[in-house]
């Protein structure tokens, strides 16, 4: 906690004065262009990865970067998505998974079913593909690391499918005002792999926006 208090002191005394006009402007309202759905993992820091200032990213974070389908509106994610699309009119939503995800690991290993009942209940939003993949992996003869990586990618695809079912998102896609993207961030290398909708596989993130656009039917 002391770390936090010292950080706050530095922010107030050293950082804030240099950016006071930005904060004055932000106090009037926010207009982020991007909503990022990421894991709560402390190692994933979107503002650092994408070099953004306050007000540029609308973050929606939870264990496993999950987006429950619209039928489960109590999760809070649905409300945040609706707000991002209809009130803030973001142009892009990115679902960002990451390497070494504890939530994905728990789906594979089920090591804490008894200790973490709420986590397990939440993780069912990873969808049937997660269970299917986990079962398939049992005798597949591939490394634990590879299993985790494949499940993390599959989960991003599943969550994009859920996202597209939300009324506000479907509307935005239909009107051509909203684009969806699926990425996986590697903590050890800092690299991002992006889902290529054509091939259904993940490859290095292209720096041209249009190459990363997913066509969700
Ligand atoms: Zn995670």
Automatic annotation (TrEMBL):
- Matches recorded under PANTHER family: CARBONIC ANHYDRASE
The protein's job, in short, is: Reversible hydration of carbon dioxide.
Q: What is the lineage of its organism?
A: Bacteria, Pseudomonadati, Acidobacteriota, Terriglobia, Terriglobales
The similarity annotation says: Belongs to the beta-class carbonic anhydrase family.
Quote the catalytic activity from the record: hydrogencarbonate + H(+) = CO2 + H2O
Q: Which residues bind Zn(2+)?
A: 39, 41, 98, 101
Task: From the Swiss-Prot or TrEMBL record, give the protein name.
Answer: Carbonic anhydrase
Report the record's Gene Ontology biological process terms: carbon utilization
SMART domains in UniProt: Pro_CA
Cofactor detail note: Binds 1 zinc ion per subunit.
Looking up Gene3D superfamilies in the UniProt record yields: Carbonic anhydrase
GO MF terms, alphabetically ordered: carbonate dehydratase activity; zinc ion binding
For activity, the cofactor(s) needed are:
Zn(2+)
Instruction: Kindly give the Pfam families that the UniProt entry links to this protein.
Output: Pro_CA
Q: Which UniProt keywords apply?
A: Lyase, Metal-binding, Zinc
